[in-house]
Amino acid sequence: MGRKRTKSGKIRLAEVAELAGVSPITASRFFRNPEALSVAKRTRVESAARELGYVPNLAARALASQRTEVIGVLIPSLTNNVFSDVLRGIYDASEGSRYSIQLSNTRYSILQEEKLLRLFLAQKPAGLIVTGIDQTTESRAMLEAADCPIVQIMEIGPDPVDMMIGFSHYDAARAAVAHLFEQGRRRIGFVGARMDPRVQRRLDGYVSAMKDAGLFDQRLVVTTATPTSVTLGGALFTDLLAREPDLDAVFCANDDLALGVLFECRRREIAVPDQIAIVGFNDLEFMASAVPTLTSVRTNRYEMGRTAATMLIEAIDGRRPEQAVLDLGFKVIERQSSTSRHSDSRPAVSGAGAANKMVALPTGHD
Amino acid sequence: MGRKRTKSGKIRLAEVAELAGVSPITASRFFRNPEALSVAKRTRVESAARELGYVPNLAARALASQRTEVIGVLIPSLTNNVFSDVLRGIYDASEGSRYSIQLSNTRYSILQEEKLLRLFLAQKPAGLIVTGIDQTTESRAMLEAADCPIVQIMEIGPDPVDMMIGFSHYDAARAAVAHLFEQGRRRIGFVGARMDPRVQRRLDGYVSAMKDAGLFDQRLVVTTATPTSVTLGGALFTDLLAREPDLDAVFCANDDLALGVLFECRRREIAVPDQIAIVGFNDLEFMASAVPTLTSVRTNRYEMGRTAATMLIEAIDGRRPEQAVLDLGFKVIERQSSTSRHSDSRPAVSGAGAANKMVALPTGHD
DNA sequence: GTCGTTGCTGGTAGCGCTGTCAACGTTCCT
DNA sequence: AGGAACGTTGACAGCGCTACCAGCAACGAC
User: Minimal CA–CA distance to A123: which of A77, A58, A76?
Assistant: First the structure.
């Protein structure tokens, strides 16, 4: 009787089937599509499986069915807070589904991304989540040819491979600058680090808003390819001040930089917001409790991850979402650092997200 | 000729073997143990594989060989900065090896951990990384019975399942308090959130140090089960101040709380460090650029992750490390927030790590 | 010259599961 | 009543790879 045991001592489907008095294939169906069984057999297989403590062998399943239940996720950084929020959303959504997450880190390199994509695709993932819209031509071709659903996250653009969820970094930056204009600021600097495509588009938005107002000046822009940090924010701000002493505001490409600028202002005894206004990007948790509280552009990172994974899983299961491109929008959260003579947290300028409208191109916000 | 193609259009090992003019099994060996082949066949298989763009089918390999090349990682949180550093180390170390990482989030629940462990183990991982030493009895039994190497990370304790890498949170907390004593502080508060086992041990260390000095007072301790945040740091500090107005220092269980305390001090115009000294835990990047710069206990998170994965992979490949328990130590980085009348960044108090000595029990530091 | 020994190679037989298709019993329609 | 249609079940044949063991040549020791 023990002869049927697998070498590893594990219970196989065949044992479950035998105990339940059905054929192995019927037992197999129980796990994949229980509705297809009669109630009697269903309960028998169920109790047999429980009694034996059966756990399916995923490798065998993958081999036989020619597909895996793995969702591949490609993100550029594990360190960045932004991605940890997105990831949390993805993991939360995948939990309870039968799909597991396979994560890889492209380190902001599209070549690395291409390599990883090739690796992933070879294992026939059930679905794929990739960051951004700036893939190599080769990657793009592989994605188009892939026979699984794909979601691009973090931003939206004109030409989705399949599904897409994010927001317009360009519009968000324009909104941040517009807010500073409203507050009467004119000499608005830009501080950016890493300069990945999304930060670049924030810069583009900033530049266009400044040009529209006739206020653009190349000296107001300080960027570096160095990875971002709070300390770096202080350093870049120092550079900016040296170039442009009569600065009256800084728009930071992310909140870490903004915090660094705030500290540097305190160090130099520059009054915020009286002398210089500060606006960050992402609205990390600490922005609301800094002194003064820091204005930032809120982005829905957790929701982005969660929705991306949910959409993907639905699509894998054959229920494609009615809209393939989802704009989650953004919101300028106005706080003390940019609103002299105003109280904290006023009604905010928001992007497309509220209406979740479909967009193909960067749309002007209201 | 196309008849041998698999349905999925993929190249199989058999095709490679055919092109190379060897048997499939020889081709298989090429990928697992190239040294076993004669140089002639080796090069022939190699070029055939490259020419055909062969990618092995992992599911088939796993099924046939009865083992996977997956390293399971169980961590309690994806949000926490601390774990993102550890994870980065793990991913960095796994890159280039043939092992892939399967990550799961226990959300600080040992029951959830047990469930995930059962799931992982059923797939016969090549190795396992688990967080901490506080598993359920059932989990512990499963880990002991698992036939793969296991590394426990984040802390060290008396009774490793297999390998272990971390440091003593208890000693680190004692060192932080000792530093405050040296600075002449007496009424030292403790602020903690989440209160997971490691934070609890930091509290234990604090309590023991305070008791040793005859300074312990229950009113000095403010904790909550709520997840940590900067804002929460301010709130807990407010509570603490209400209970104990003549506080002269705060030891925070992590840096987010410390930053919140700093902001709250600024809001209340409490001078740091003149009225109140602040010490954090982990030494996140921003601590060095806050104003004043914030003292913290540096922990080697990235290195911990990297070393854990490296040790694990070595052990999987049959090269067990000479020491199974590795104490990475800690270091009190003294900065302005706790060192009145001193300049920044003096020589620091450090834990066991420098010597990487083996420890079985929390050892007193010097 | 015979017998081990070593180094390399190949054949056989699965690993545990699922896709496909045929077959069965039942119900419902005409 | 006959047959179509449906729902349910099972047999068969692999999925692509590797473990195991046998075979073979080349070589050296006696």
Answer: A58
Residue A297 pLDDT: 98
Kindly list the strands in the beta sheet with B249-252, ordered across the sheet, starting from the edge strand earlier in the chain.
B221-223, B188-192, B249-252, B277-282, B295-299, B330-333, B349-350
| CA nearest to A129, candidates A120, A4, B307, B183 | A120
Average pLDDT per 10 consecutive residues for chain B, totaling 366 residues? 44 88 89 84 89 89 89 94 95 90 94 92 91 96 92 96 98 98 97 97 98 97 97 98 96 98 97 97 98 97 97 90 95 95 51 44 36
On the CB side of A331, CA atoms within 13 Å amount to: 16
Q: Quick check: A8 and B286 CB within 8 A? A: no
Determine the pLDDT at residue A23. 87
Enumerate the domain spans of chain B. 2-57, 70-167+303-327, 169-299+330-355
List residues bridging with A279 in a β-sheet.
Answer: A251, A295
| Torsion sign across C-alpha atoms A280, A284, A289, A295 | positive
CB–CB contact B79 A62 (8 Å): no
CATH domain B70-167+303-327 topology: Rossmann fold (3.40.50)
Q: Which of A78, A90, A147, A269 to mutate to test the interface with B (most CBs of B within 10 A)?
A: A78
B219-to-B227, B241, B268 alpha-carbon distances in Å = 21, 10, 21
User: What is the average per-residue pLDDT within A334-342?
Assistant: 84
Quick check: A360 contacting B, CB < 8 Å?
Answer: no
Specify the nucleotide whose C1' lies closest to residue B24 (CA): C10
Nearest residue: Cα versus C1' of C15: B64
Nearest residue: Cα versus C1' of C10: B23
Q: How is domain A2-65 classified at the architecture level of CATH?
A: Orthogonal Bundle (1.10)
User: Which one is the CATH code of B2-57: 3.90.550.10, 1.10.3720.10, 3.90.76.10, 1.10.260.40?
Assistant: 1.10.260.40
Residue A359 pLDDT class (50, 70, 90 cuts) = very low
Residues B229, B232, B236: CA angle, nearest 5 degrees: 140
A162-187 burial code (b ≥16 CB/10 A, e <16): bbbbbbbbbbbbbbbbbbbbebebeb
Pair A223, A195: CB distance under 8 Å: yes
Find the residue in B nearest to A301 (Cα): B79
Percentage of the residues of chain B whose pLDDT score is greater than 90 = 67
Cβ within 8 Å, pair A291-B229 = no
CATH fold, domain B169-299+330-355, is Rossmann fold (3.40.50)
pLDDT in tens, A28-51: 989 888 888 888 888 888 898 998
Provide the CA A43 to C1' D7 distance, Å, integer: 18
Task: Express each pLDDT in B206-252 by its tens digit.
Answer: 999 999 999 999 999 999 999 999 999 999 999 999 999 999 999 99
Q: Does nucleic acid strand C have an atom less than 7 angstroms from the CB of B38?
A: yes
Residues whose CB is less than 8 angstroms from the CB of residue B194 and which lie 6 or more positions away in sequence, other chains included = B108, B224, B225, B226, B227, B228
Q: Which CATH architecture has domain A169-298+330-355?
A: 3-Layer(aba) Sandwich (3.40)
Chain A contact present for B62, CB below 8 A? yes
Q: Do domains A70-167+303-327 and A169-298+330-355 have the same CATH topology?
A: yes
Joined tokens for residue A233: 């924010």
Amino acid at B199: V
Q: In Å, what is the separation between the CA of B38 and the C1' of D28?
A: 21
**Phi, psi angles (nearest 5°) of residue A124:** 50, 65
Flag whether residue B145 sits within 8 Å of chain A, measured between CB atoms.
no
Q: Which nucleotide is nearest to B17 (CA to C1')?
A: C10
Contact A250, A279 (CB under 8 A): yes
pLDDT of A323 reads 92
Nearest CA to B153 out of B333, B327, B6 is that of B327
